[in-house]
Amino acid sequence: MKIYYNIIILLFFINSCSTKVNTIKDDFYGITYYQTDYISVKNWDTTINLRLVSKEKNNIVLEAQYISSSAFTITEENKIVLKFSDDSFIYLNYTDNVKKLNKEEVYKTIKGWFFDTDYIDTYLVNASSEIYNLGILTDIRLENSEAFKNIKFPEDKAHKLLELFNEIKSIN
Known about the structure:
Low-confidence stretches: 12-17, 103-111
Oligomer: single chain
Strand content: over 45%
Radius of gyration: 19 Å
Number of strands: 10
């Protein structure tokens, strides 16, 4: 019997540490909606955050944040495209952006005696799209007028995103 209690405690601990669907109660507008925590994918100079939001019945929106310290920016004319395992695509609609957030980085020398502070320009772009079905996400492409950047989406995070989508869909 003690083994069963330990297993239940372990499962509870594992479940509480994972990304989940949160219930948001907005007392100001008097509404309740659901949203997930961000699922993040990091490249050496880029971070992509994805989350699901459902503010209306049968309406699920996939939101993306593109954060980069490189000058590869996305604007209204450019795209964030999600590719799925069945070769389907979702094109996210540009929402807004913030250019050149100052991010302070402190670097140490090898011996650690000298400190140097650099400010790195950071770009933030938000995009979203209403979704009705979701598959296994495999890739994210960031396109601008001059080039594109592909980022692989980890399989375990893709399965987690699909699981969260199905959970929000069942709540609605």
